[in-house]
Amino acid sequence: MRTFIPAPILALIAASASGAYAGDLAYDFTLVESVNPSYDLAETFVVDINEQNVAIGTDTFGGFRWVEGTGKIELPSSGPRHINNLGEILYGGSILDPDTGDFSFLPDAPHPYPNRSARAMNDLGVVVGHEYTNGSGCEPFNCPLDCAFNYVYDPVNGARNIDVPNLRSFRDVNNSNIAVGVIISECDNTRGVVYDLQTDEMINLSDQLPPIDLIGRPAQVQPVRISDGGHVIGTAIYGSEPQSPFVWTEQDGFTFLAAPEGANYGYIYPSAVNAHGVVVGEALDEDAGGPIGDWRAVIWVTPDNPQYLDELITDLPADFLFENVYSINDNGWITGSGHFGPGWATQRGVVLQPLAPNLPGDVDQSGTVDLADLNLVLANFGTTNEDADATGDGQVDLADLNLVLANFGSVAG
User: Fold this and answer.
1) Would you state the torsion angle of the CA atoms of residues 61, 63, 65, 66, taken in this order, to the nearest 10 degrees?
2) Beta bridge mates, 223
3) 313-365 pLDDT, tens per residue?
4) Residue 186, Ramachandran bin (φ over 0: left; ψ between -120 and 50: alpha; else beta)
5) Rounded average pLDDT over 259-285
């Protein structure tokens, strides 16, 4: 039997974008210890993970790769920042080929600043970040502002600076060569931009929000990451609103992230987003046990559905506080760090592996998004039946239809 879907619903679905996982989220927890865990002050941070589920990080004694089943593999230098899907590892001023152990040092750009801080690298070998002068405290967000400028490198054209006044730094770049960065023309006046490195077209995100009421300045927008699906995340101050976490797309504009229970809305920081639009970050939970609360890691499968990650981990060790999230890949794997409480302790690396099927729209968890999923959603449309609730927001509605049709034909694995 063929399923009939009214044309208006199809039109709405076609105009929407999906961004959630099917079913309830649950995660397996892996603690990544230092190479010398007996040293009381040893710390470990797992900072990035690629689509092959290979992670990188650093501890007190050096850098490492991490692979499930193998564990940590020592790198020749500490401080890795990013790993792409070719396995190439980005450092602040160089790229490591892990197979040969050879470093390729990033060349100088025309701008005369002698140092560079690479922030991100895509699968095409395009690197973005900023250059800066010698001297302590010189970063794009610090004064004096003339000590830093944007930096771009690609294997074909070499190193260059984008000739946009006061474009101080790029923070991330996706595989379509779309980058996010910041224009800072004066202290405490940060305007976020989305920049196409191929066409030199630029979108000023601050122009899409009302100016700040008290001082009349443009909205301050701090973008931090961009996904291969074009989702930009960051924080913004605009109008009379406090600092607000957001996800932005060219199609939908700004959508502000809801606060998890107990969180102070001015202290929510999205830190990573995958191609499905799933966002992770941190929030200060004022209801938690510390004197001012505790920082807790958060996931937003949709902008209005925040969940604390420590409540989704099936085997979280006793007294472990999962505070910081650094990355999420398209398979749903998450990296971060935390510590054993209740008081202060050194940071320990964390890798979370999703246990629930990670296939958007696969409502019946068969491994395929097909007519069975569509029929299940349609038969329960307007209800709260959790078996048909693809987005996990408590309602079977247009968002669930959108998710199923947008991923129709997809197969897990």
Assistant:
1) 40
2) 234
3) 999 999 999 999 999 999 899 999 999 988 888 999 999 998 855 578 888 77
4) beta
5) 94
Chain position carrying tokens 């990544």: 32
Q: Is 132 exposed, middle or buried (0-12, 13-18, 19+ CB in 10 A)?
A: buried
What average pLDDT does the segment 226-254 reach? 96
End-to-end CA distance of the chain: 28
Q: Give yes or no for residue 17 having a pLDDT over 60.
A: no
CA–CA separation, 215 vs 387, rounded Å? 50
Helix (H, G, I), strand (E, B) or coil at 178: strand
CA distance 338 to 342: 12
Q: Outline where DSSP puts E strands in 80-208.
A: 82-83, 89-90, 94-97, 102-105, 115-121, 127-132, 148-154, 158-160, 167-173, 178-186, 189-196, 202-204
Q: What residues form DSSP beta bridges with 202?
A: 195
- Nearest partner of 124 among 65, 183, 84, judged by Cα: 84
Residue indicated by tokens 């038969």:
379
Q: How far is CA 274 from CA 227, 254, 390, in A?
A: 5, 17, 18
272 vs 226: CA distance, rounded Å = 8
The Cα–Cα gap between 393 and 12 comes to 19
Helix (H) or strand (E) holding 11: helix 7-14
Q: Are 40 and 328 in contact (CB under 8 A)?
A: no
3-state helix, strand, coil in the chain (%, to 5): 10, 40, 50
> For residue 299, is pLDDT > 90?
yes
Q: What is the DSSP letter of 365?
A: -
367: pLDDT confidence band, cut at 50, 70 and 90? low
**165: cis peptide before it, omega within 30°?**
no
128, pLDDT greater than 50: yes
pLDDT band at 271 (very low <50, low <70, confident <90, very high): very high
The tokens for 315 are 């085997």
Q: How many CA atoms lie within 13 A of 367 on its CB side?
A: 2
185 to 109, 142, 166: CA distances (angstroms): 21, 12, 6
* Low-confidence winner among 15-29, 30-44, 96-110 (lowest mean pLDDT): 15-29
- Bridge partners for 334 per DSSP: 328, 352
Distance CA 304, CA 19 (A): 12
Q: How far apart are CA 201 and CA 198, in angstroms?
A: 8
